[in-house]
Every structure is written in structure tokens, then in C-alpha cells.
Write a structure and sequence with these properties.
By secondary structure, this protein is mainly β. Helix content is about 10%, strand content about 40%. The strands form six sheets. The protein has a six-stranded mixed beta sheet with strand order 10-15-16-20-19-18. The protein starts with a helix and ends in a 6-residue tail after the last strand.
Length: about 325
């Protein structure tokens, strides 16, 4: 055999060995880039390069320490620790990727306090949205992504039709129908802990809604007309929670759905809105009086929703204060 044939044979053997080695190891997991985008309304943890196949599991660790762990599946975690940008008020104290069994990786977020959170996808990105608890502020804060959507949409009052809370084995669903796409602003209040979902350009087709739930971590649901207009008509949904927990919200054209899964349940990253069931007859419903220029938030401690005269209270407990839009800081 001459030298040329020998070299060709060696080259072919090398290619074959490389092919076999690649087929045994398989392609490397996707590289993930992590970015924190803090505002005074929320903190978005954006994971670029990872989209859960269908479900995402996340929960707070047991005990008083506020550590949120999110299972990310099989990914190639960044070697460097994520940068934590300046934030006011501060929420995220530390973030680290934790290797697990079977090549899976989790993200551990150490927070200043436990807060409600949700997980959803945007294209090739997974977003963990931590909802800040508003305390002692007289401003009505609109999240920047909500303000951007409002700026792209013309103003028109649309009818909002409520469904009934639907308690299932592993979750609680609350759905509604709307003549158009629901644009929402989400924040939290304390004492008691409440998750607030304001639906813009929405007008209730019925009187206020106030019903005890007592399942899946939700004590009570309240709904009422927060503002009639100028510049937005706002319907407010208030979910009184037993503790900070995971929720999911899907808002499409014609309907939207808020879901609270059990702590151990695994939920879809992008749930599909369910058609709302007819609302039951509620003894605790109190019709709102004739509309006036002044509206109070529907967050009283009593069982009935009432309209009160404005008082010096935190945002969401009195008249809607001047609208302020938050900006994001990206690192």
C-alpha cells in the first residue's frame, strides 16, 4: 500500500470514530443567557435560550427563608454567577444555577421576601415574573410592558363577563370573557396578602363580585369596577392568598384565565384560557351605587365591597393616584 492510500485510510477511520463519538454523546445542551429586569412593580428574570417543552415546576423552599427554586430541565448553565442589578425596593438578593440528577439544572433565587410569581414564555425566552408587594406608595404604578401595550391600543370600553371559580383536583381556575383582548396590570398588596389584576378598558356586565373560596391557597376573590375611565376604564380582580405562591395568567382575545396550582403541581408554561362557567348566586354580592367621579379600590376587610371616599392609603386602597410608568434596567 502506498503512502497516499495509507493517509486516506487513516483519514476515513478518524472521521468514522468522530461520528460514532458524537452519536454516543449527542449534542450539547443549549447555552442559556440570564438577565434581570427590575422595576418597582415587578422583577422579570429572563432566561434566553430555554423554552420548557410543556410544563414548569417551581416552588419556595420550606421554612422562613425566601428561596424560590425553578426546574429548568437539561440546560448548559452559565459558568459565571448572574449579575444582580440595583433595584428599589430590592427584591432579588442572589441567583445561582444548581445541578441536579439526570443532567437537570435548577435556578435558585434568594429573595428579600416571598412574593407571588408566574412563569411564561416569549419566543425563545422563559420569563419568571416576581410580583412586588406595594407598600406605602400613593402612586398607581403601571408596569412598562403594560404601558407599552396600552400605547399600541386605542381606548374603548369593553364588557367583561365573569365566570365562577372552578376548583379542580390540582388547581383553581377563574375565567372571564371580554369583547376584545385583555390588557392587565399585576401587583400585590399586604395585610392581608392580595394578588391584584387590573383589567384595562373593561366594564363589568354585573354588580361587584365577592365570594369566599378557601381552596388551592386562595381565601377569597373580589371583583369590582375600580375606574370608569379618564383615561382608562379598569375592572379590578383581587385574590386574597394564604401565602405567596405561583399563579398563571393567560390573556387572549375574547377571554382570559387566572390559575392557581397546588404547591406540588406542575403547570403548563402557557396555559390556554378556559371558557368561563356561569357565575353562581352569591349572598355576599353588594351592588355598587350610582357611578361617581371618585372610585375606591375594592380591598376592604369586610365581606362586602363598598365605595368609600378617598383616604390617604397605599395604592389600591383609595382613589387611583397619578399614573406612573416604570422603566426597566437591563444588565
Amino acid at each position: 500500500m502506498n503512502k497516499s492510500n495509507t493517509r486516506l485510510t487513516a483519514l476515513l477511520i478518524g472521521i468514522a470514530l468522530a461520528t460514532v463519538g458524537f452519536s454516543q454523546t449527542g449534542p450539547s445542551p443549549a447555552q442559556v443567557k440570564m438577565t434581570l429586569l427590575p422595576t418597582r412593580v415587578n422583577v422579570r428574570v429572563v432566561l434566553d435560550g430555554i423554552v420548557p417543552a410543556s410544563t414548569t415546576a417551581a416552588a419556595y423552599a420550606a421554612g422562613n427563608e425566601a428561596v424560590l427554586t425553578v426546574d429548568l430541565g437539561s440546560i448548559q448553565a452559565p459558568a459565571d454567577a448572574p449579575m444582580i442589578p440595583a433595584d428599589e425596593p430590592p427584591l432579588v438578593r442572589a441567583a445561582r444555577f444548581v445541578p441536579g440528577t439526570g443532567g437537570r439544572v435548577s435556578l435558585a433565587l434568594t429573595l428579600q421576601e416571598k412574593v407571588p410569581f408566574r412563569i411564561f414564555t416569549e419566543g425563545t425566552k422563559t420569563v419568571i415574573e416576581l410580583i412586588k408587594v406595594q407598600r406605602g406608595s400613593g402612586e398607581y404604578l403601571i408596569a412598562p410592558e403594560t404601558k407599552a401595550e396600552l400605547d399600541r391600543t386605542g381606548r374603548a370600553s369593553r364588557t367583561l363577563t365573569l365566570g365562577a371559580p372552578n376548583s379542580r383536583n390540582d388547581r383553581l381556575d377563574f375565567s372571564a370573557q371580554m369583547d376584545g383582548k385583555a390588557i392587565v396590570n399585576i401587583f400585590a398588596l399586604d395585610a392581608p396578602l392580595r394578588l391584584v389584576v387590573d383589567v384595562f378598558d373593561a366594564v363589568l356586565e354585573r354588580a361587584s363580585f365577592n365570594v369566599p373560596v378557601g381552596s388551592h391557597g386562595v381565601d377569597r376573590i373580589k371583583v369590582g369596577q375600580f375606574k370608569d375611565g379618564d383615561p382608562y376604564a379598569i375592572t379590578r380582580l383581587v385574590f386574597e392568598l394564604k401565602e405567596p405562591r405561583m399563579f398563571a395568567l393567560s390573556a387572549g382575545t375574547g377571554s382570559f384565565n387566572v390559575m392557581f396550582p397546588d404547591a406540588a403541581a406542575v403547570i403548563a408554561a402557557s396555559p390556554t384560557p378556559a371558557a368561563p362557567k356561569p357565575a353562581p348566586k352569591l349572598e355576599s354580592v353588594t351592588p355598587l351605587p350610582a357611578k361617581t367621579e371618585t372610585k375606591a379600590a375594592i380591598l376592604p376587610a369586610e365581606k362586602k365591597i363598598e365605595v368609600k371616599q378617598p383616604e390617604a392609603k397605599p395604592a389600591g386602597n383609595g382613589d387611583a393616584p397619578p399614573v406612573k410608568t416604570e422603566t426597566k434596567t437591563e444588565t
